[in-house]
Amino acid sequence: MDALIEAIVITNDRGIIKRCNKAVIDMFGYSQDEIIGKDISTLMTGEDRANHAAYIDRYLNTHEARIIGIGREVNARRKDGTVFPIHLAIGEVGFRGTVRFIGMIRDLTDEKKAEERKLRLHTDMITASRLTTMGEMAAAMAHEINQPLAAIANYASASERLLARESNNIEDIKTALDQIKSQAHRAGEIIRRLRNFVKPESVDLVPTDMGVIIDEIRPLAEVDAHANNIAISLMSRATFPK
Known about the structure:
With 242 residues, the chain is α+β, with helices and mostly antiparallel strands. It folds into two domains: 7-107, PAS domain (Beta-Lactamase), CATH 3.30.450; 112-239, no CATH class. The chain has seven helices and five strands. It has helices at 22-28, 32-35, 46-50, 52-62, 109-164, 170-198, 210-227; strands spanning 7-11, 17-20, 72-77, 83-95, 98-107. Strands 2-1-5-4-3 form a five-stranded antiparallel beta sheet.
């Protein structure tokens, strides 16, 4: 048993530890004298620890496998109180007319850390991909934003010239101001769509009108297409799938 890498614990039918190997001592921090004769719930946490006796009674009465005969991931507790993830597989054997349970324990701490690093790396790669795409679109986007800004400047200059005249030109000035407002909204909408494109957020999966989706992404698509001399042709909204 001591030659095995995985921790092995043998208990009687009431969950009292009868034997364990060196890997258990190294994993949980107890000595042989401290662990032998203790209830196996000493190594458990939370609800599993509180309900352990009921788990054993249920299995002995029904032989319905929950952990016994199946195995699963649970949390365990070391002597110093630290909690760590393990995979626990339990088997049942007969021993001199009684029942013994053999538990094989594998520490999952390193695996969980590796999964977390992999998830963080995946998230970082997605963000980097978005930023790269945004960088590729930056020149075309600058051109697209400059158009409403140039229009705003032109309409503002025209308003100044109209105000400098003494003739009654209020309607012309109002028209110029309306155009300034419209072009300002246009520039703001371009920036808003770009920020939404690179902002990480959760997504709800719901039925959606494809026409609405295409209308929302069309401005960004047209900017990128124009920069690469690509023509975009949209079919009629009536032909979009419902």
